[in-house]
Amino acid sequence: MREVRTIPVPDGEDGVRLDRWFRRRWPHLSQGQLQKLFRSGQVRVDGSRAKADLRLAAGAVVRVPPLPDAPVNDQQDRVIDPREAAFAKSLVLYEDDEVLALNKPSGLAVQGGTKTLRHVDGLLSAWGEGLERPRLVHRLDRDTSGVLVLGKTPAAAAKLAGAFAHRKAQKTYWAIVAGFPKPGDGVIELPLVKRGIGDREMMTPAEPKDPRGEPARTDFVTIARAGPRAAWMALRPHTGRTHQLRAHMKAMGHPIVGDPKYGDETSAALSEGLKLQLHARRLTLPHPSRGILTLEAPLSAEMRAGFQRFGFDEHEAEADPFASGRRRS
Q1: CA proximity to 147, closest of 107, 111, 105
Q2: Which of 1, 26, 94, 247 has its CA 20 to 30 A from that of 276?
Q3: 6 C-beta neighbours (distance < 10 Å), count
């Protein structure tokens, strides 16, 4: 961009750090390039020089100086293969001018890493780059399928992320767990702490006085049982700890079927040939500009395999298994 621009801050970006505001719009800028712009006084907010850590207020006006273009090789790297773009578009559950919702497949990571080259974040190039590129506002584990929502504008992403941060997003997961849960419904409040190193890291129950313990709460309801072997459950996390549902089910003594990390001997015996039986079925949250949005993801192939093995019928579930308040013990 070779001209000076003035851009007002929308309501949805109130409180966002200035450097993050820039990165959302021009992701090719390096930290060094941004710092140089701030140090030289070329970036101004409401006419005054501004530092990188300034928290923007809605309605403020940001002066954006001429910016360096993205490197040619970077632009080439971001060109998505047409087959990958078609795959990304095939995942769409819902889309409007502000919100994009995908049915994330099991096995597809949300973001990349040293050993993860294919991920949702990379597939978002199918919608464009810069301001046109959708933004992640929450995450799902690699092997968890189901509803993943994104913001299509910086303002929409900020509002959606705020809904998750302030617990206005109501999430309902389906899971198949080992054993016969008693009671059949209730609440588990159990702080969790991360232990281990690298790939061996796990979330485990925290000791009562462990300052590292993070509060974690999950509501649970049993929808159906396959005798004493397994149960189909609805799970509703009220906090967003890493692996929270998997760790809580293990702590209850009913690990999720197909989970090699949090399983035990009983679940392992039930899991042969099955992937993780955890699916983000339903998500209800405020739309960035109008009403309430309810999103629902059909079962993945991996979950269907589990339902077939244990004889569960997805049509037996209520839209919101927690609404009736019935106990299923």
Answers
A1: 105
A2: 94
A3: 10
Residues 191, 207: Cα–Cα separation, whole Å: 8
What one-letter code names the amino acid at 294? T
pTM greater than 0.85 (yes/no): no
pLDDT tens string 274-315: 999 999 999 999 999 999 999 999 999 999 999 999 999 999
Q: Tell me the per-residue pLDDT of 146-156, one tens digit each, with 9 for 90 and over.
A: 999 999 988 88
Structure tokens given for 238: 């009220």
Reference 12, options 268, 262, 288, 318; nearest CA is: 288
Count of alpha carbons within 13 angstroms of residue 85, beta-carbon side: 10
CA 270 to CA 254: how far, in whole Å?
A: 12
CA pseudo-torsion sign 300, 295, 256, 139: positive
Tell me which residue of 65, 75, 60, 74 sits closest to 36, measured CA to CA: 65
Rounded to whole angstroms, how far apart are CA atoms 46 and 22?
16
Kindly give the pairing relationship between strand 145-151 and strand 278-286: parallel
Instruction: Give 255: exposed, middle or buried? Use CB within 10 Å, 0-12, 13-18, 19+.
Output: buried
Q: Of 19, 141, 143, 185, which is the active-site residue?
A: 141
User: Is there a catalytic annotation at residue 143?
Assistant: no
Tell me the CA distances in angstroms from 323 to 105, 121, 173, 187, one per residue in order.
Answer: 27, 34, 14, 14
Collapse the DSSP code of 148 into the 3-class scheme (helix H, G, I; strand E, B; otherwise coil) and give the result: strand
Q: How far apart are CA 148 and CA 138, in angstroms?
A: 7
CA distance 315 to 126: 34
Q: Which residue type sits at 180?
A: F
